[in-house]
Write a structure and sequence with these properties.
Elements lengths: L9 H8 L20 H15 L6 H7 L14 H13 L12 H18 L15 H14 L6 H32 L3 H15 L3 H4 L1 H9 L11 H40 L1
Helix pairs in contact: 1-4, 2-3, 2-4, 4-6, 5-6, 5-7, 7-11
């Protein structure tokens, strides 16, 4: 299930997203003020999504959790579309917004990336909110503001940094999705990663006896790679994804440093040329 933002009443969505934090939204017209807020509804939706996934979120289920009927929630939130956007942006409020640059942009960027990675694993349903059409809420913008504040410390220009931000976010979300898929696969099938691979490896050798001759480089990689020792607390694919995440992050940070050095050299060469 992929959720695309902006499918509901976008003006209403923006109004709800950008209201004063904690502001109660109540029904209009006569009658007593209800003891329910948008925040309470959104928190209930997040709790359901964290426990059972985004597909379990419905106005009826959220209403049940807050002690109301599903229909009663429409006074506060126009539809499930707006609710999912509010849930996503509110969850992002957990992320830190300030990073110390005393040790340089690389250390700060590494810390931000690991915090975002941990957030995605705490709230795996957020990975189903498509980045193709942003929610445009305050906390989504705070995430962008935070990482850009770190990256502008590199001295690189906006055109480069725009691509760097996209690459970092895609790296985090893609790696986190693999971990989430690994966890869900074991739960859904009742078969661990290790058992799944062991069963297929044995059958594979029988069905494709000439595999090594046809794909020698693939076999070489498998033979030369350092095997991870068994870890009952972390499935095989989850460990692989985590190590791939860390390795990929190091490569990205090295790449950014290389761009910074080239940019600095270019500026120095330009100054020399101007003085010639």
């Amino acid at each position: 299930m992929v959720v695309f933002a902006g499918q509901g009443d976008f003006r209403r969505s923006l109004t709800l997203l950008w209201r004063t934090p904690g502001e109660a939204v109540t029904r209009s017209g006569p009658g007593p003020r209800p003891g329910l807020t948008v925040d309470a509804i959104v928190d209930a939706g997040i709790a359901i999504a964290d426990a059972s996934g985004i597909s379990a979120v419905s106005m009826r289920e959220v209403g049940r959790r807050v002690g109301r009927t599903g229909m009663a929630l429409y006074t506060y939130v126009p539809s499930k579309d707006e609710l999912l956007e509010l849930m996503y942006d509110r969850a992002l409020a957990e992320l830190p917004t300030g990073y110390d640059l005393a040790d340089g942009w690389r250390a700060a960027l590494s810390a931000w990336t690991h915090d975002y990675w941990a957030f995605c694993l705490r709230h795996p349903w957020t990975l189903q909110i498509s980045q193709a059409r942003p929610v445009l809420g305050p906390n989504e913008n705070a995430l962008l503001e935070t990482v850009l504040r770190i990256l502008f410390a590199t001295g690189l220009g906006a055109p480069v940094l725009r691509r760097v931000v996209g690459t970092l976010i895609n790296h985090v979300r893609g790696a986190a999705q693999t971990v989430v898929d690994s966890r869900q696969a074991a739960t859904a099938t009742g078969v661990s990663d290790e058992d799944w691979w062991a069963a297929r490896s044995a059958a594979f050798e029988e069905v494709v006896p000439d595999f090594a001759a046809r794909f020698p480089t693939v076999v070489r990689l498998a033979a030369e790679a350092v095997a991870n020792p068994p870890d009952p607390e972390r499935p095989y694919l989850e460990r692989e994804a985590t190590e791939t995440f860390d390795a990929g992050l190091a490569i990205l940070l090295d790449g950014i440093e290389a761009i910074v050095r080239r940019s600095g050299q270019h500026d120095r060469d330009a100054r020399v040329a101007e003085g010639a």
